């Protein structure tokens, strides 16, 4: 199984999905190829973006399955059919169960709009603003069974400006995400990310 064959999981707007697809088109994902979009919300804008980019999509409603495990088993079957090596979560709003985690251990990554471990979970940008931090940012991390708890691969900071709203800060955070995620996905696809315990290293 090759890490270069990528599935992106997303539930919403899919602007990170679009940034990754654009990076691939521009030759910036190295050997990485986005082979599949997986979404738990068939009506989400990201599904349309996949169609426009000519990327196949697996659109499944979890409530059409008897359990979360059966929903994920269907996804795993499709990932294996397509020989997917790397799962990239980009605004996928569900916790992953062992059905998906076990076969893809160490090969699932997520992007989160804060400097973890600060402000894990939902509405990270609102949480940071409410707390009053002066610096927040973006984290790309491996996914484990917890909520935003896996080993950190890369982080980039974004300053909070006086007068920032959730919208204005989100806009600057998104711009950083669109640069950072393709860089890290490229390194992963090329097998350049090493993991030892909680420590990661991106080799040149
Ligand atoms: C991003 O801010 C990402 O950090 C978080 O969910 C958001 C997804 O946005 N995990 P989009 O769907 O890529 O536009």
UniProtKB/TrEMBL annotation:
Residues the record lists as binding (6R)-10-formyltetrahydrofolate: 68, 93-96, 110
Residues marked Raises pKa of active site His (site): 148
Ranges for domain Formyl transferase N-terminal: 5-185
GO BP of this protein: 'de novo' IMP biosynthetic process
Main enzyme class: transferase
UniProt entry keywords in alphabetical sequence: Purine biosynthesis, Transferase
Spans traversing the lipid bilayer: none
Catalytic activity: N(1)-(5-phospho-beta-D-ribosyl)glycinamide + (6R)-10-formyltetrahydrofolate = N(2)-formyl-N(1)-(5-phospho-beta-D-ribosyl)glycinamide + (6S)-5,6,7,8-tetrahydrofolate + H(+)
A GO MF label: phosphoribosylglycinamide formyltransferase activity
Protein's UniProt keywords contain Transferase: yes
Active site: 112
Biological or metabolic pathway of the protein: Purine metabolism; IMP biosynthesis via de novo pathway; N(2)-formyl-N(1)-(5-phospho-D-ribosyl)glycinamide from N(1)-(5-phospho-D-ribosyl)glycinamide (10-formyl THF route): step 1/1
Residues at which N(1)-(5-phospho-beta-D-ribosyl)glycinamide binds: 14-16
EC number per UniProt: 2.1.2.2
Stored InterPro entries: Formyl_transf_N (IPR002376), Formyl_transf_N_sf (IPR036477), GART (IPR004607)
Gene Ontology CC terms: cytosol
UniProt KW Transport keyword: no
Function: Catalyzes the transfer of a formyl group from 10-formyltetrahydrofolate to 5-phospho-ribosyl-glycinamide (GAR), producing 5-phospho-ribosyl-N-formylglycinamide (FGAR) and tetrahydrofolate.
HAMAP family from the UniProt entry: PurN
Family under the similarity heading: Belongs to the GART family.
Protein name: Phosphoribosylglycinamide formyltransferase
